[in-house]
Amino acid sequence: MNGPDRFEAHDGDDGPEEKDKPRNEGDIQDERPEGPQNERAAGRPPRIPLPRASVEDSGLPLPALEEPGDATEPPPVRPVLEHPVLKALLGAWALAACSAEEATAVEEHLGECGACADEARRLREAVGLLQRPDSLDLDPGLRTRVLESCLERRPPRIPVPDWAAAYDTETARLDALLQDFGDAEWHAPVRLRWFRSDEATSRRTTVAGVIAHLLSVDGLVAVALGLDDPLGDVTSRQPTPASRTEAYWSASHFPPTRAVRAPWREQSHNLVRTVSFTGSGVGGLPVPYGDFELPLHDAMLDRAFECWVHAEDIANAVDYPYDPPTPRHLHRMIDLAARMLPNALADRRRSGLAAPAHHRHLVTAGEPGRSLRLEIEGSGGGEWLIPLDSPAAKGSAEHEVAHVALDGVEFCRLAAGHVPPQEAAAGQVGDREAIRDVLFAAASLSRM
User: Fold this and answer.
1) May I ask the CATH class of domain 162-323?
2) How many secondary structure helices (H) and strands (E) does the chain include?
3) Helix 162-178 to helix 327-350 angle, to the nearest 10 degrees?
4) Which residue among 191, 239, 428, 444 is buried most deeply as judged by most CB within 10 Å?
5) Three-state SS string across 51-83, please?
6) Matching InterPro entries, A to Z (predicted)?
7) Where are the domains of the chain?
8) Is the pTM above the cut of 0.70?
9) What is the pLDDT along the chain (448 residues), one digit of tens a residue?
10) 3.30.1050, 3.40.50, 3.30.2420, 2.30.130: CATH of 329-444
11) In 3-state terms, the chain is what percent helix, strand and coil (to 5)?
12) Is the CA virtual torsion 312, 315, 316, 320 positive or negative?
């Protein structure tokens, strides 16, 4: 018996009597589905569901499990795009801004529609003009063009001589490379390379050591102009570039650091300023190099050449691109090397490094003699007739016995001792012995 204070569980079956008992309007109840809340709202106790039987307890075999690879999913249905939609996507496709599905649909459409293919080609060409893959490095000729434009509008009261312009430009380019170097870059290892007695020679140093080398050798020009010697009280055994460099390195209590940049740059400014104030008449002033001497206008070209070569060494050490000089300056450097070749040939013969040719004969100074045609290709190139038998002889096309063709930058690297003579020439015709002598003489121009 259920009372207000008693609760008895039941299964919810009202029995046959209750089922057959007619209901009046007052007996009409809410027909909502039964649940704990509805049971509570109707004043009846909630019905507790019976526990379910597990399939594992029934004794029946369990269903087989599907392997992950068994279920084959149907391939995705690629949307079919109409021609107007594909045509509208050509601009985004040219800019590589389409999704993978859209790009595939456009490319399939281009194989079928000639008009869209032509439009896509024009759009791709336009994108190439808008997004040129230019290098982040400035054009090496930009500085020269800007200066020329400025000087055309307002000529300088004290112009820089033409033969000093290459040195001014190359020192500025190297200084721009050094501007953002940190301690790691300044101490990066660099190997200086040159040829001595037909053998490749090298010396290991650092980026700071290379700048110290340039500072000490540029000091030869500074001393010739009456400026302070960067070595100061330090004396070298010989007044040669190598001895001065070794003396500077040995006098340093610690390996050179970034502090060497300021004196090197100040000295380069002073050299350009001094030759500019002195005038073009000072170009013939002799600059002794120990074993030989050069007139000032050639010495400044020589220093510009070495500055570029060692700037490339530094750039390679820090894995940074570095462009060759402008064609005008490169031509001047090649011309200097070509003019130095006859003396280099004579020195090699005196040292026994170049055997005298069988047909060699001395001629009167200024007279034509056996010659080799040196053809330099590329920017800054040209042709030079190199006298083979005597430095005082005159190159002559009528007495040409050999012809050598090289790239301009390759020839400069040969003269710097960075390329073996056997691998330098792109084309060789004529007397093999004369060609070998000239190539090895070019390599002998190199020094530390």
Assistant:
1) mainly alpha
2) 16, 8
3) 100
4) 444
5) CCCCHHHCCCCCCCCCCCCCCCCCCCCCCCCCH
6) Anti_sigma_zinc_sf (IPR041916), DinB/YfiT-like (IPR034660), MDMPI_metal-binding (IPR024344), Znf_put (IPR027383)
7) 83-130, 162-323, 329-444
8) no
9) 444 444 444 444 444 444 444 444 444 444 445 554 555 555 666 666 666 665 555 666 666 655 555 555 566 666 678 888 888 888 888 888 888 888 888 888 888 888 898 888 888 888 877 755 555 566 767 777 887 788 677 776 788 899 999 999 999 999 999 998 998 999 999 999 999 888 899 999 999 999 999 999 999 999 999 999 999 999 898 889 999 999 999 988 777 888 999 999 999 999 999 999 987 678 899 999 998 999 999 999 999 999 999 999 999 999 999 999 999 999 999 999 999 999 999 999 888 887 665 556 667 777 888 999 999 998 889 999 999 988 888 898 999 999 999 999 999 999 999 999 988 877 899 999 999 999 999 999 999 8
10) 3.30.1050
11) 50, 10, 40
12) negative
